Amino acid sequence: MHRFALRLAFAVTTALFAVGFLAVPAGAADRTVRIVSSDYAPDPVRITVGDRVTWLNGDSLPHDASGNGWSTPLLMNGERASVRFTARGTYRYTCTIHPAMSGRVIVSAAGGSGATTPPTDPAPRSSAAARPAAPVAILLVAATAFGFGLVLRRTARRPR
User: Which of 12, 105, 134, 148 suits 40 as a labelling partner, its CA being 20 to 30 A distant?
Assistant: First the structure.
């Protein structure tokens, strides 16, 4: 019975690890735009469909990035927020507090074509609505370890 419990725990652990790794989009990248001296850098930032852009505020003033139908929350120094871009196009954005600050995200097709097609500035999916995969994977690993411990404790208590 002890061997069966160990094999079962190993199988469950392996399955949960696989689910955790599959939850991360394959090939998706994260590009960072730094906000320093009331400027976005780099500008423009170039990504492919499905990639995420993270704005990191390194300025002493609060800033955000707001486009046509999407925006990050207001970011204080050291804070960051991300947006995943799911359609090809050119996304123009500004800081709502400092309208002179502007930038562009240029999203090309996954095959590497840099061409954009109208309409430009489609609404991307905000990361605030999406669930990050890393915390889910961490919870799965913790739950698996807890379950594995329970199985071992239960099998150790049984008389042979």
Answer: 134
Distances (CA, A) of 141 to 22, 23, 25, 126, 138: 14, 13, 19, 27, 5
Scanning the chain, the segments in alpha helix (DSSP H) are: 2-22, 133-157
Q: What is the pTM of this model?
A: 0.57
Sheet holding 66-67, edge to edge: 45-48, 102-108, 89-94, 66-67, 70-71
- Name the phi and psi angles at 60, rounded to 5: -75, -15
Sign of the CA dihedral running 59, 61, 67, 72? positive
Neighbours of 76 (CB within 10 A): 12
What whole-number percentage of the chain has pLDDT above 70? 51
Which amino acid does the sequence have at 68? N
Cβ–Cβ < 8 Å for 58, 77: yes
